Amino acid sequence: MGDVSNLVNQIAQVEKDVFVDKPGARAQLMVLANSLASSLETPSEKISRIGWAEPARFACLRLAVDLGIFEKLGSEQGNFAAADLAAPAKADPILIGQLFVLSVAHLDTN
Q1: Which among 53, 82, 88, 95 is least buried, having the fewest CB atoms inside 10 angstroms?
Q2: Using CA atoms, how far apart are residues 73 and 59, in angstroms rounded to an integer?
Q3: CA gap 109, 38 in Å, rounded
């Protein structure tokens, strides 16, 4: 629970900045609040949230599984271009690129 206490303390500090309109403070507070909520979730709660509350992210992950992208990422070391990941499934590289953009748009920091 050390992480939780640390996040609560950070939230208390940044909250003061929000009320004096410090630039970027509100966004930082939202990131910390999301990190706190994420750190309190159980794995099954996180899966439920992604599946039910974040259907676009779930759809992207499902598509990545169906296209075998995770197998490709897990089988080789290095960096991959969208075209590298798209080729085995004969998918459009632009689709794969957009899939990753949407998948990580609200990525948890924990």
Answers
A1: 53
A2: 19
A3: 8
Cβ–Cβ under 8 Å, residues 39 and 3: yes
Mean pLDDT by 10 residues, the chain (110 residues): 84 90 90 90 87 81 90 85 90 91 66
In the DSSP assignment, the letter for residue 36 is H
Cα–Cα distance measured from residue 63 to residue 65, given in angstroms and rounded to the nearest whole number? 5
- What six digits make up the tokens of 20? 């004096």
Tokens at 93, concatenated:
């590289």
Contact 25, 18 (CB under 8 A): yes
Rounded to an integer, what distance in angstroms lies between the CA atom of residue 53 and that of residue 46? 10
Could you tell me if 11 and 28 are in contact, meaning their C-beta atoms sit under 8 angstroms apart? no
pTM of the model: 0.54
